[in-house]
Design brief:
three-stranded antiparallel β-sheet; 154 residues; mainly beta; globular; binds zinc ion; 9% helix; Beta-clip-like; 2 helices
């Protein structure tokens, strides 16, 4: 039974909102879709980087529409499961930090208007974030980024 619903968001078009209380640590949804390489990816359509040269295409479900926040209330745990980082009340928009997935050398980024006190002003590749931010969002990195940046350091 899903606890989220796809709705129009004032700030940035479509968004996903809680329609029931969600408890910290609870799985909200699992992202799905077809896997593509960079060369095969249609960058005009929804896509999520999940590996060095691996992209998840659209599922045409709510997971395509979860917006970014620099102070998100959800994040990935152990793969493509999006879990609540804190208790979430009905009506709150579900957000995750896109920089926990994106890590392209040539990703120009795009402006962020999430409004959080810690807003970075721009959504960027993980590699371009300040080290302190990288450490802060480390627990919710996709596995390929955990392995790439942190496994050798323990
Ligand atoms: Zn922001």
């Amino acid at each position: 039974m899903t606890k989220v619903v796809l709705e129009s968001s004032d700030s940035h078009g479509k968004g996903v909102f809680a329609c029931a209380p969600i408890t910290q640590g609870e799985r909200i949804m699992t992202f799905s879709g077809t896997l593509f390489s960079h060369a095969q990816t249609d960058f005009n359509d929804y896509h999520l980087q999940v590996g060095e040269d691996l992209y998840l295409g659209p599922s045409r479900g709510p997971d395509d529409y979860v917006n970014h926040s620099c102070a998100p209330n959800s994040g990935f745990k152990g793969g493509l499961d999006l879990v609540a980082l804190r208790d979430i009340m009905p009506g709150e928009e579900i957000t995750w930090d896109y920089s926990t997935a994106i890590d392209e050398a040539d990703f120009a980024g795009f402006p962020c208007g999430c409004g959080a006190p810690v807003c970075r002003g721009k959504v960027e590749s993980f590699r371009h974030l300040p080290p302190l931010v990288q450490q802060r969002i480390r627990p919710w990195l996709l596995p390929y980024l955990q392995d790439k940046y942190f496994s050798k350091q323990g």
